[in-house]
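Input/output pair, single chain:
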Amino acid sequence: MYGHDAWDYKGYTCSIDAWVEPEENIKMWHWVDDPDGNYLRPHITPYDGSKEVVELWIDAGCPSGRCVINGRDYGNWDMDSLELLKNNNLSVATLRERISPLR
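Output:
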């Protein structure tokens, strides 16, 4: 493990662990405990280690699973898809319909 950051946000306990792979590739692993004590594993891109992306994931309603839009798997959630979800007050299903032309 390369580094660890932990903080509280809106009743959630959040943490990011940075791992260095053999080829010097650094990936971030995101972990969240909700206010009820449930463990959540956000599918956030491992290349974003910012607190903001985890907080945006919470603000967007803690979407589960990977970002699959119109049957196409776009992988992990990122700032762009989370901002669309949150700022447009969309459901994950509606986001999947709207974001498809943008990708």
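Residues 3-102 form one domain. The longest strand covers residues 12-20.
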